[in-house]
Amino acid sequence: MIDLRFYEIWREQIFVEKLINGIGTSILLMILGGIIGFIFGLALATARGSKIRFLRIPSATFIESVRNTPLIVQLFFVCFGLPMIFEYRWPFFASALLALCLNFSAYYAEIIRAGFDNVEYGQSEAARALGLGKNDILAYIVLPQALAKVYPSLVSQFVFLFLTTGIISEVGVEDLTWAGRYIADRNFRDFEVFIVLTIAYALLSVMFRGVLTATGQLVFPWYREK
């Protein structure tokens, strides 16, 4: 019979504090990484769809480079490679945030680009016939429809990326996974600790998905997928 001792996780106040702080750090990183990554991703998607080679080729190269390398490699490059190249030293929290933003942006860019491709070209032509400029067409015609069409995919991608970010603990960022490893190294109850981490990540994922889905219904009340 398995001897489960979940109380070993709560018996020390510092264990509880580490878990709470880890949850807060993970949520903060995900919110900041998601927002900044989305802004970068939108810019990359626009650049990749441009007819200007100077914009299209670098953006496509960046997107494919990020999407075809592991997040942990990107994390180590940002945390240890960039400081060697540019001779600077950021806190690991800032480096982890930068790595997440770059990773998020590449995946978001491809999803947003798919949304652009799914907007009927005839609508842009009609807008030009009415005298709208290129920027107005993008901002008021193409972009709202594109984001509405791919919003569920953006939400799913965000949740998936959130579930893979426990590796930022490898560089010393005190996120939820780091807190779990801190506790397990001291009470030797790895099985119970990682059950708790699994439940915590599942609950956070459900929370993120629920909040983002409700936000999408508020932002795109006019859109209903057929």
TrEMBL record:
Coiled-coil residue spans: none
Pfam families per UniProt: BPD_transp_1
Entry keyword annotation includes Oxidoreductase: no
Subcellular location: Cell membrane
Keyword Membrane appears in the UniProt entry: yes
Membrane topology reported for the UniProt record: Multi-pass membrane protein
Ranges where the ABC transmembrane type-1 domain occurs: 23-212
Keyword vocabulary terms for this entry: Cell membrane, Membrane, Transmembrane, Transmembrane helix, Transport
One GO process term, biological-process aspect: amino acid transport
A GO-annotated cellular component: ATP-binding cassette (ABC) transporter complex
Residue ranges of the TM segments: 20-47, 68-86, 92-109, 193-220
InterPro entries the UniProt entry points to: AA_ABC_transptr_permease_3TM (IPR010065), ArtM/GltK/GlnP/TcyL/YhdX-like (IPR043429), MetI-like (IPR000515), MetI-like_sf (IPR035906)
SUPFAM superfamilies per the UniProt record, alphabetical: MetI-like (SSF161098)
Gene Ontology MF term list: transmembrane transporter activity
UniProt cross-references to PANTHER family, sorted A to Z: ABC TRANSPORTER PERMEASE PROTEIN, MEMBRANE COMPONENT OF AMINO ACID ABC TRANSPORTER
Identification of the protein by name: ABC transmembrane type-1 domain-containing protein
Organism: marine metagenome
Taxonomic lineage from the root: unclassified sequences, metagenomes, ecological metagenomes
